[in-house]
Design goal:
The protein is 32% helix and 12% strand. It has nine helices and twelve strands. The chain has a four-stranded mixed β-sheet. Strand 5 and strand 6 form a beta hairpin.
C-alpha cells in the first residue's frame, strides 16, 4: 500500500468510528451495561491509544498532557503496563469524554504527520502496524454497534431508545423454502488465509485438512423455525442441552433469544432501530453457542431429512464457503448502504431470497461452529506486544464464521475466525445446520 492510500484508509476508518457515534447522547458515552460491554468513551480512547502505544512510541514519538490515559485505555496488553479492569470502565469520571475527544484528535494529528514525513524505508515497516491498527479499529466499530444495542436495551422498558431511525417499510419477499441440504463430497481442503492481503495471525498458516461427506443448510435458521423450538418447550428440555448449556439456561433464565419479548401474545425484538415485531423469515439472531447446539439436536428430532443435525466444524464451513463462491454473493454488511451512509444500512438481519444454493454465508449474522478456538498447526503469533492480540485467548472459546450486518465488508473474508465464549448472546450470532452423510 502506498503512502497516499495508507493515509486515506487511516482517515476513513478513524472518521467512520466517529460517524457511528454521532447518534449517541452525552450520557451514552459513560454507560457500561455489563462487563463484556465497554462504554463508548473507552472505545474512542482505546482505538487511539493503540496507535500511540504500537506506532508512535516505537518511533520515539509521544503526546503530552494526558496523564493516566495509558492506564485507562490499555485493554489486555500485559506487556504494555497496568490497566483499568474491564468491569470498572464505567466507574471512573476521568478522563472526561471531552478530554478523550482531545486525546483522539492529538493522536490523529501525530499519526498523519508521521505518515507524511516517514522515509519510504521506514514507512514500509510502519505500514504493517498501522494496518493492524486500522483492522483493530474496524473490529471495534462492529463491537460498538453490538455494545450500544445492549446499552440501549438495558434501560427500563419504558425508557428504551433506538440507536438509529426506523428503516423504510420492508418490501415483501417470498418466504424461504424448507431448509435444503447442499451436499459436499469428502475431500482434502485448504483451511486458513490464502493469497495476498491482510489477515490476522490466527488465520495462518494455511494448511491441508480433511473433510468428510456432509450436507450444509442452504441458509440460516429463521425466526419462525426458532419460535417452533420455543413453542415445543426447547428451553425446558434438559436432554437437548450440553451440561454447561443447561446450567446457563437455569441460572440466567433463558426462554428465547436475547432481545425477544412477548407483547400481547406476540413476540417482538429490540434492535438498533428500536422495537419491532419478530419477522418470521429473518434469520434468528443473538443466540449463544449452547442455544445453537440445543436447537440442532431438536431440529434433527423433528425432521427425518436432518436426523442427527449438528453445527458445522470451521473446516467444513470454510470448505463449503470456498466451493460455493460465497465471496461473490450479495451480503448484508455494515458498509453496504448507499455511499456507506449509516441510515442506508439495514443495521439488522434480513431475510434471504428463495434461490437455490448456499446463501447468507457472509453478512447478516455470525455462525457458530462446533470448533473450539485453537491454533492452527505451525501457528506463530504476531511479534512483540501484539503477540497478545489473539493467541492468549485460545482457551474456552468457540469459533464463529461469516460476518454480520455490523461487519465492515473489508473484514468479511472466508478465513476470518471470530471467537467468543459459548454463553455469549449480545453479539449478532445465528445458526446454520450441518448433516453428516
Amino acid at each position: 500500500m502506498n503512502r497516499e492510500d495508507l493515509i486515506a484508509r487511516f482517515r476513513t476508518v478513524r472518521s467512520t468510528t466517529e460517524r457511528l457515534m454521532r447518534a449517541l447522547l452525552p450520557e451514552d458515552f459513560r454507560c457500561q451495561s455489563m462487563p463484556d460491554v465497554s462504554p463508548p468513551y473507552w472505545t474512542l480512547g482505546h482505538t487511539s491509544w493503540f496507535f500511540l502505544a504500537n506506532v508512535l512510541r516505537p518511533q520515539r514519538l509521544d503526546v503530552d498532557g494526558f496523564a493516566g490515559f495509558d492506564f485507562t485505555f490499555n485493554s489486555y496488553y500485559e506487556g504494555l503496563g497496568p490497566r483499568l479492569p474491564r468491569a470498572q470502565r464505567l466507574l471512573v469520571a476521568q478522563p472526561s469524554t471531552d478530554s478523550v475527544w482531545s486525546y483522539r484528535r492529538t493522536i490523529d494529528a501525530a499519526m498523519l504527520e508521521l505518515l507524511a514525513v516517514a522515509t519510504d524505508h521506514d514507512l514500509a515497516e510502519i505500514a504493517k502496524i498501522v494496518t493492524i491498527g486500522i483492522e483493530h479499529e474496524q473490529q471495534h466499530q462492529e463491537l460498538f454497534l453490538t455494545e450500544i444495542l445492549h446499552i440501549r436495551w438495558s434501560a427500563p422498558t419504558e425508557l428504551r431508545q433506538a440507536y438509529a431511525a426506523a428503516s423504510a417499510k420492508r418490501t415483501h419477499e417470498p418466504s424461504p423454502a424448507a431448509l435444503r441440504p447442499i451436499a459436499f463430497a469428502k475431500a482434502s481442503s485448504q483451511l486458513g488465509h490464502q493469497g495476498e492481503g491482510f489477515c490476522w495471525d490466527n488465520e495462518l498458516p494455511a494448511h491441508a485438512t480433511l473433510v468428510g461427506d456432509f450436507a450444509l443448510g442452504d441458509r440460516l435458521i429463521t425466526n419462525a423455525e426458532w419460535q417452533a423450538f420455543v413453542d415445543d418447550g426447547g428451553y425446558q428440555r434438559p436432554l437437548l442441552w450440553l451440561s454447561n448449556g443447561w446450567q446457563a439456561v437455569q441460572q440466567r433464565g433463558w426462554q428465547a433469544p436475547l432481545y425477544w419479548q412477548r407483547i400481547d401474545e406476540h413476540w417482538h425484538r429490540f434492535t438498533l432501530r428500536g422495537l419491532v415485531a419478530v419477522h418470521p423469515d429473518d434469520p434468528v439472531c443473538h443466540v449463544s453457542f449452547y442455544e445453537a447446539d440445543a436447537f440442532a439436536r431438536w431440529y434433527g428430532e423433528q425432521f427425518s431429512a436432518w436426523q442427527h443435525a449438528r453445527l458445522p466444524r470451521e473446516s467444513e464451513w470454510e470448505h463449503a464457503a470456498r466451493h460455493s463462491g460465497a465471496e461473490r454473493e450479495p451480503a448484508n454488511l455494515l458498509d453496504d448502504g448507499t455511499n456507506g451512509e449509516l441510515g442506508a444500512n439495514a443495521l439488522d438481519v434480513l431475510p434471504t431470497s428463495d434461490r437455490r444454493g448456499l446463501r447468507q454465508m457472509l453478512g447478516d449474522a455470525w455462525e457458530w461452529t462446533q470448533s473450539h478456538y485453537e491454533p492452527y498447526p505451525g501457528y506463530r503469533p504476531f511479534p512483540g506486544a501484539l503477540m497478545e492480540y489473539n493467541g492468549k485467548f485460545m482457551d474456552n472459546q468457540r469459533v464463529l464464521r461469516g460476518g454480520s450486518f455490523a461487519t465492515p465488508r473489508s473484514q468479511a473474508r472466508l478465513a476470518y475466525r471470530n471467537f467468543w465464549p459459548p454463553e455469549t448472546r449480545f453479539q449478532a450470532t445465528s445458526v446454520r445446520l450441518l448433516r453428516d452423510a
